[in-house]
Structure formats: C-alpha cells, structure tokens
Amino acid sequence: MVVAASLVVVAGAVAGVLAAFDDGGRASDEAGPPEVSASPRPAPLPAVPTRSAPATTASALPSPSPSARRTTTPAPSKPAKKREHRTAVAGRLYRHPDSQVLAWVRSHSGDPRHAVIASRIAEQPAAVWFADYAPDTVTARVAAVTSGGAALGRVPVVVPYTIPGRDCGGHSQGGAPGLDAYDSWIDRFAAGLGSDEVIVVLEPDSVAQAECLSAGERADRFASLARAGRVLKAANPRARVYFDAGHSGWNAPGKQAAWLRQAGAASPESSDGIFSNVSNFHTTADEVAHDRRVLDALGGPAGLGAVIDTSRNGNGAPADGEWCDPAGRKLGRAPTLSTGEARIDAYLWVKLPGESDGCKGRPGTFTASYAYDLASS
C-alpha cells in the first residue's frame, strides 16, 4: 500500500473557495484549506458525543495516489561533502486564518464535536496547498499566505501541487497542461514568496510516484522540478525547499535518492532537503530512519535535512496497508521546527487531519466525523 499526497486543499482565493455540500439529502459534516503552528498533545477525551448534522462547507480537492511496495534498503552512497549547516528556520509555524477546519469550527459552535476539533486540530498550524492551475491569481494567493506569516513573525508552509500528470491519473489527477505551462506557473508562484522565511513542500508524489512515467517523461519532469527549486530559492533566498522522498513503506532509499538527485534535490541552489509521509500514516521513528537513509544515499551538502508529515501518524500505518481514511488512526506529533533529531528540520502537518481521502467524505473535503475520530483516538 501507499499513498502519498492524498487529498489536498486547493488554495482558491488564498486558502480555498468554499462551496456548500449536502450528502444525499443528509446534512453533511464536511467543510476550506489547512495551516500550521504548534500545540500540545491531546488529553483524554470524553465519550463520543451524539453526532449532529449541521450544514457545512467543502472545497474541491485532489486525492490520494497509489503506491509501490517497499524494496530492499540500498547500500549507503559516498559521504556528503562537508558544508556548514545553514541556520535552521527559526520561530514558530504560521496558522493561516482560512482553512476548511476553521470554516467548520466557525459555523458549528453548537456541534458536540466542536471543542475537540477546535482545540486539537483547528488550533494547529498546517500547510496551505496550491493545487489548482490558476496562473493569473497564484502570485497574489501565495503572497497572501507568506505576508500573513511575515506580519506575525511566523513561518508559513506552502505546497505547490500542479505538476502535469500528478498522481498518475489517480484521485488527485490534474495539474498544469504541460511542463512549459508548469514552469511558467512556478515562476508566478515564486513571485509570491516574499522575502521572509517560508517552507516549500514541492510537489508531493512527484518523485516517489514517477514509476508511472516513461524514462523520457521522468527525465523531463525531474528537470522541471530541479528548475522549480532553483526558481523558488532565487526568488526568496530564505525559502527552504524540500523534495519528495515518498515514505518509509514505499521506494528503497537508494532508488528514491537516485531519482531525487536527478530532480535537483542534492543541489543547494535548488534544495534544502527532502520531505516524507505526506498524507500517510507511517510512524515518526520509521520516517526519521527512512529520511536519514535517503539523505545518506543522496549525498550533497551536509546541510540538507528532512521534514516529516506527522498529522495522522499517531498510531502508525494500518497493518493491511489501507490508505483511504483507515480506521483507528490518530493525530501525530504537533507541528514544530524543533524536533531534537539530527537532520530532521521539522515535523509538519502537511495534510490537514479530517480532510478525507475519499472514503469518509468527498476527496479533499473536511469531514467532521473523521476529524473527531482522529482527534479523540
């Protein structure tokens, strides 16, 4: 099993265009996009309250991708060249005020699940996804997020997710009409990054899921990703750009590192390192070990690090490999820029808990029942 970028939030007018949604005549508990900052681990919860059925809002989003099985761990590559580690991103993560969970919380104060969802999910900072190909507005929408973080002295996390052929035509299919269009879109995306600290999670699934492409298509995609990294870092030298390393249940570290190298992830002009576990459930310990193996095999500057999506990995991945809103999962570690782990730059909530993979709600929509299950497990 493996899914990486399961439903994401399409950052419409900054954070997502909200639309009313009703599921088959029954009032839905769905709702707009995610955000990021740190908060405490959940305390014991009361018994599950009676479910109410308030009307809610939803936003259209992409969904999860299939994945490959894990293969053998490769031999480590030659040691990375020595290079002074750049100063880590400082401060706290930014919680953008427009998100699906916040839209739900604002409009459902009387729902018995409100307090748990508000305190354990809505108060956390999470990434803001840009999954719609809208070149005319993307600069302003990115700038709205980055300037919001700068005004508070906090670090936003943004996710460009518009690579052509994304998700290999699966639930999250879509993206730019071609690589030339994508390159132009990235130029406009970069123009909104500002000059303050920002974390860029560059195109989930774009490297780990590249098996579905022909060798020529893969090379073209990787060249475009390498260019994207250079453009983003040139636009804002304080931007930290991370490339797709899949997760610990997917490709072997050596294979992943070889692809990442082709995509520019070993070059300091393009990259600050890798990300893993986006929209997945593997434990933080497994991801830390996986990411270090990938970084060792990748080579490049010693300053390259990793960020890990911990939003839904509190109970680890299901034994049966289920990826679509699997039961029994729970929230993972709170987002933080201080992990205490060598080469692990941050734990992030890239995938917002409660946004469905397509089984407990429409793909990409915030579903209160699912959010409550995660927050109260």
Quick overview:
With 377 residues, this protein is α/β, with parallel strands linked by helices.
Elements, N to C (H/E): EEEEHHEHEEHEHEHEHEEH
Sheet/helix structural class: alpha/beta
Largest sheet: 7 strands, parallel
What portion of residues is helical?
A: 25-40%
Strand order of the largest sheet: 5-7-8-9-10-11-12
So what's the overall shape?
A: globular
User: What amount of the residues lies in strands?
Assistant: 5-15%
Radius of gyration: 19 Å
Mean pLDDT: 82
Quaternary state of the chains:
single chain
The total of helices stands at 8
Query: Low-confidence segments, ≥5 residues, pLDDT <50?
Result: 1-28, 32-87
Write structural notes for this entry.
This protein is an alpha/beta fold and 377 residues long. The protein is built from eight helices and twelve strands. It has helices spanning 100-107, 114-122, 138-152, 179-190, 215-235, 253-262, 284-298, 368-376, and strands at 19-23, 26-27, 56-58, 92-93, 128-130, 154-155, 157-160, 198-201, 239-244, 273-276, 305-309, 344-348. The strands form three sheets. It has a seven-stranded parallel beta sheet, covered by helices on one side. A three-stranded antiparallel beta sheet has the order 2-1-3. A hairpin with a 2-residue loop joins strand 1 (19-23) and strand 2 (26-27). Helix 2 (114-122) crosses helix 8 and helix 6 crosses helix 7 (284-298). The longest helix has 21 residues, at 215-235. It is globular and about 50 Å long. It starts with 18 loop residues before the first strand and ends with a helix. Mean pLDDT is 82; it is low at 1-28 and 32-87.
